[in-house]
Specification:
It contains 9 helices and 8 strands. With 298 residues, it is of the alpha/beta class. The protein has an 8-stranded mixed beta sheet with strand order 1-2-4-3-5-6-7-8, sandwiched between helices. The longest helix has 19 residues, at 115-133.
Length: 298
């Protein structure tokens, strides 16, 4: 499928969503005043806006672009509680990154596809704006997502503007994605994802394609440059290792740099433990940073 046909499928998906009763498209974004030494909590107003914690690096050279990392929690697409990712976000900020630990509207707010994906994209724009407000020049933009959040960050990386909605801040190009026990082949999780899409896959295959990261890769419709790191626990009883394996193979087959690390003895929640993954993520981001000043993505 060509890029044009992907866009057409996305538009068809949005039309189907209208028929299924999903009306939220314009994503409100929180605002906050930050200083270079502060960690600012942006509370959820309770009216459907997303929320985030901003973690600024304890030391960073402001004369050079600083990596911008946005962490996105899981929750089976039913909820979005970022609290459990705070230790990882703080650890990544402590090694010189601007990190924003953000949420999205999920099933508990009545949100269905593509709203959570659009919220994640707007989180990226918000994070870049806050980094600039704190005096930093955003470098490579990296999304880190766990479980259902892994699905959303992968989808944000591979779909580009295909499902874009208005955001309060410009959304920069996503340079990299880190999936932590993520779901990348939607059709293998139909029980959990049917409420997310609002309709069974057989009734709306185009809609499901538009929300399936693997579909964009196989269709050759991924905005580049994009690099992908997939971290998966060997003892994960929730997400099988075949999910990242199939995704990695598809990415490599289409010329997209990808690496899968299967972590021995790690389960579904252990893959967010800073002691287990922070070093791997930091090394991956450092590699992106080493080339960013030569070929920045914007």
């Amino acid at each position: 499928m060509t890029r044009g046909r992907i866009a057409a499928a996305a538009l068809a998906a949005c039309a189907l969503l209208a028929a299924c009763g999903s009306t939220a498209t314009n994503v409100p974004t929180p605002t906050a005043s930050v200083s270079p030494s502060s960690s600012v909590f942006v509370p959820d107003s309770g009216d459907g806006t997303v929320s985030a914690d901003i973690h600024l690096p304890t030391s960073a050279d402001k004369s050079r672009p600083v990596p911008l990392i946005v962490t996105i929690p899981g929750g089976s697409w039913k909820r979005s509680d970022r609290a459990y990712l705070e230790p990882l976000a703080k650890q990544l900020a402590s090694v010189g990154n601007v990190v924003v630990n953000a949420t999205y509207r999920a099933g508990d707010m009545g949100a269905q596809f593509p709203v959570p994906l659009q919220d994640v994209r707007c989180d990226v724009g918000y994070a870049a704006a806050q980094a600039k407000a704190a005096g930093y020049t955003p470098g490579p933009v990296v999304l880190v997502g766990h479980s259902a959040g892994g699905h959303l960050v992968a989808l944000a990386g591979v779909s580009g503007d295909a499902l874009a909605a208005p955001c309060a801040d410009p959304v920069p190009h996503i340079d990299a994605v880190v999936g932590l026990a993520g779901i990348y082949d939607a059709r293998h999780f139909t029980d959990l994802l049917t409420p997310f899409f609002g309709v069974p896959v057989d009734d709306a295959p185009a809609l499901w394609d538009a929300g399936d990261p693997l579909h964009y890769v196989q269709a050759g419709a991924v905005p580049k440059p994009l690099s992908v790191l997939l971290l998966q626990g060997s003892d994960d009883a929730v997400v099988p290792v075949t999910q990242p394996q199939v995704f990695e193979q598809a990415l490599l087959a289409h010329g997209i740099p990808a690496q899968l690390d299967v972590l021995p003895g790690v389960d579904h929640m252990g893959v967010v433990d800073p002691a287990v993954v922070a070093g791997r993520i930091a090394l991956f981001v450092r590699g992106l940073q080493s080339t960013y000043s030569v070929t920045p993505s914007g």
